[in-house]
Amino acid sequence: MAAKPVHVTAIYPGSFDPITNGHLDLIERSSRLVDRLIVSLLRNENKEPLFSIPERMDMLREVVQPYANVEVDCFGGLLVDYAAQKGATVILRGIRAVSDYEYELQMALMNRRLGPSIETVFLMASEANSFISSRLVKEVIGLGGNISGMVPPAIEARLKNRFLGEGR
Ligand code: PNS
């Protein structure tokens, strides 16, 4: 078994379309556990995102600015290959409810098979954020609902712009 590296780099992968307060809470808490945290956006041609990769990278950079050991990147291909290339030994994921567990377990086990030296670490979402998802936030604002407190203010402004148009 490999010894613990002196510096621990973790990857927090995801779609972040857009980043929510749930994601941000996880970033804040995990930034205190590892030396370097790379929040990394999946370049996924199969999904039709609301925000483009450059837009999502911009939004991520804006909200992680207060955390000195957090950086933003994007990746394609296998996550374990990307993690190895970045010198990361940890993949970080959040779990909100039991419904997340099966999907996360399957991914974690697949990643362990593909890259046994990379450990997936789960953090539980805070109670206050455990119902928030990017998908629901988009649905709610798209139907005219209030999303304040679910995403950082800068992201709320971007969503309002996208759904309600400039200057509203
Ligand atoms: O926020 P999401 O959309 O639930 O994140 C999913 C993500 C990006 C973590 C997952 O799709 C992923 O890691 N994709 C990279 C491709 C890969 O490595 N697949 C095999 C392992 S499951």
Please sum up the structure shown.
The protein has 168 residues and is α/β, with parallel strands linked by helices. It has helices at 21-31, 53-64, 79-85, 98-114, 134-142, 153-164, and strands at 9-14, 36-42, 70-75, 90-95, 119-124. The chain binds 4'-phosphopantetheine.
Structural features:
binds 4'-phosphopantetheine, alpha/beta, 5 strands, single chain, 40% helix, 168 residues, five-stranded parallel β-sheet, 6 helices
| Element string (H = helix, E = strand) | EHEHEHEHEHH
> Residue-averaged pLDDT, rounded?
95
For the record, give the distance between the C-alpha atoms at the N and C termini, rounded to a whole number: 57 Å
Quick one: overall form?
A: globular
Number of strands: 5
As a whole number of angstroms, the C-alpha radius of gyration is: 16 Å
Oligomer: single chain
Low-confidence sequence ranges: none
The main pleated sheet reads as: 5 strands, parallel
Q: Which bin fits the share of residues in helices?
A: 40-55%
Count of separate DSSP helical elements: 6
Strand portion: 15-25%
Which strand order do you get reading across the main beta sheet?
Answer: 3-2-1-4-5
Ligand list: 4'-phosphopantetheine
Can you put this structure into words, describing what you see?
With 168 residues, the protein is α/β, with parallel strands linked by helices. 40% of the residues lie in helices and 18% in strands. It has 6 helices and 5 strands, in the order E-H-E-H-E-H-E-H-E-H-H. The chain has a 5-stranded parallel beta sheet, with helices on both faces. Strand 2, helix 2 (53-64) and strand 3 (70-75) form a beta-alpha-beta unit. The longest helix has 17 residues, at 98-114. 4'-phosphopantetheine (PNS) binds at residues 13-15, 42, 78-79, 107, 110-111. 4'-phosphopantetheine is lined by residues 13-15, 42, 78-79, 107, 110-111.
